[in-house]
Amino acid sequence: MNKRYFTIGMAGHIDHGKTTLTKALTNVDTDRLKEEKERNISIELGFAPLYEDDEIQISVVDVPGHERFIRQMIAGVAGIDLVVLVVAADEGVMPQTREHLEILKFLGVKTGIIAITKIDRVDEELIEIVKEEIFDELKSTVFENAPYVLVDSVSHKGVEELKSQIIVTLKEQEMRDIRGAFRLPIDQVFTVKGQGTVVRGTVYEGAVSEGQVLTILPKGLSVRVRQIQVHHQLVQNVFAGQRAALNLSGVTKEELERGDVLVSSEHFIVTKTIDVAMQVVSDLDYIVKQRMPIKCHIGTAEVMGRIVFFDRNSIETENDEVLCQLRLDEEIVTKRGDRFILRRPTPKETIGGGWVIEPRGEKYKFGYRTIEQMEQKKIGTAKERITAALVEGKCLALSELITMTSLSEESILTELTGEEFVLISKKEYTLQSIIETLLEEFIDKISYYHSQYPMKTGVNKAELFHPLQKEFPKALLEYVLDSGVKRNQLLKKGQFVSLSTFIPHVPKNWQKRTENVLVKMQQDKYQVYYVIDYFKNEGIPDYLINDIKHFLEEEGKIVSLDEQYYWHGDIFKVAVQRLKTETKSEFDIGEAKQILGLSRKLMIPFLEKLDQLRLTKRADNKRVWI
């Protein structure tokens, strides 16, 4: 896939013009709610398409700036690839701007552009003063060397320049990895009349296709993707970096909430205890105490919990990373490397943030030995690094593992002897757990196909592989399929794949009527009428007739003479055997008519069928047995 997808964020203090600038850039008003219009502030996340060409697609999220709506701001920024920091020329850097900067640092956002707005409200001399103030404030932040653009959203001065700067910056940036398992933290849940439940969010990683079966974590609900929309346009697939709305079957709106995560793999961990590396904000208003209540923002989830230290009882100021643990009141979905923000519930303030070292934390003793163990976890063992790389890449060559883990070839080969690693070709490795998950995915898809098409031999292999090939290499899919066959769980018949226990059959509610058709055709022997009338006389609906007829023919229970006339399979066999017994090596139509007593209307199609089946071949006016 050559096209790349990005989501950018507008961040900054309230009333500095983020929403107006978003509208100027996209021609979309992201203030949708009535109360947003009335109060002239953004409460919920607003999204809009910014730019698209053959190489790149860019979406914008306008995050709320007011302190009371910091939760939505964190949910929006958590999934973005570039931040446009909006600072009004008539006010400069404000407290909310500084808090947003701290949050961006903790979330690991590394790319930014500064938009100095409302420039038509001040003179050029003041703009220069404001610029100097802004650059002083942004020292030692991700925006220290960021490009800046002077804009006025009302007159559109500088808007196109800003848009061009965003496009150029992102075209030089790597997009998120679409090879990983699909993950979309949900930030909005709603219903659409006639469609059902819809969830919206930014795809953190991986890709998903229409029709794919996914899981809602931490609830463990299984759902199927009915439709996918990107900016109100129906699409077949959605990729990492895109904003998407997914119409889901198998779940109601009431069962879901912001913070739930839509995933395609069981490798994501559901947990309440996480080991973390944390940094605190530069100017804490209050001491952070041992086991104090905290509000953890991770992905789009917002969960209460407590912070546990192992080498101290409080923090007043700290510039270095602190290794500690978060014990949460509710389950979250996370993995190593995920970013989080910590807020004090009351009095409200951002305490700090960082990244997840170990999603499955345990209870440890207070003391430096625990800190030493956490330091080792932070670095990561060789096995953990290899496992993390394979979870991300699914199937990797040794050279790729060396690049992704920064381990030596010898170290990697030593670890790869473990039973959890599988060599699927001469040079590519995967995880046994990935094979098991994929095999379960195959069985689920094939089982669903059998339930929908019980008369068909099985699902076409290409159809089985297609929705998975964006996430998994074809070589891995082939290996898993072969494994399923070797285990006698799956069966391959030509290009079709079925469950080994599956036997094609007419749907149960039509089996008796189909049997009646066969009985009547057998009773009529050679003197049959139009085949479609047999089915209609039994009340079998038109939409099923061709499928059942094709199935019976595939099973050899009926044989077509032409498009209109069919014989019961046993009657056809008897006719062939009788004709062969009572003729010599060759015969003509007259002899055949005399033996079988058929009219010419049926005799000609019958003899042509023998030719078609290569039982006979025509020689002038005679047939010769082959």
What are its keywords?
626 residues, alpha+beta, Rossmann fold, Elongation Factor Tu (Ef-tu), domain 3, 8-stranded antiparallel β-sheet, 6-stranded mixed β-sheet
Note down, in words, how this protein is organized:
The strands form nine sheets. Strands 7, 8, 9, 11, 12, 13, 15 and 16 form an eight-stranded antiparallel β-sheet that branches. A six-stranded mixed β-sheet has the order 2-3-1-4-5-6, with helices on both faces. With 626 residues, it is an alpha+beta fold. The chain starts with a strand and ends with a strand. The chain is elongated and about 110 Å long. The longest helix is centred in the last third of the chain and has 21 residues, at 432-452. The protein has five domains: 4-171, P-loop containing nucleotide triphosphate hydrolases (Rossmann fold, 3-Layer(aba) Sandwich), CATH 3.40.50; 183-263, Elongation Factor Tu (Ef-tu), domain 3; 269-375, Translation factors (Elongation Factor Tu (Ef-tu), domain 3, Beta Barrel), CATH 2.40.30.10; 393-504, Winged helix-like DNA-binding domain superfamily/Winged helix DNA-binding domain (Arc Repressor Mutant, subunit A, Orthogonal Bundle), CATH 1.10.10; 509-625, Arc Repressor Mutant, subunit A, CATH 1.10.10. One of its GO terms (biological process) is selenocysteine incorporation. This is Selenocysteine-specific elongation factor.
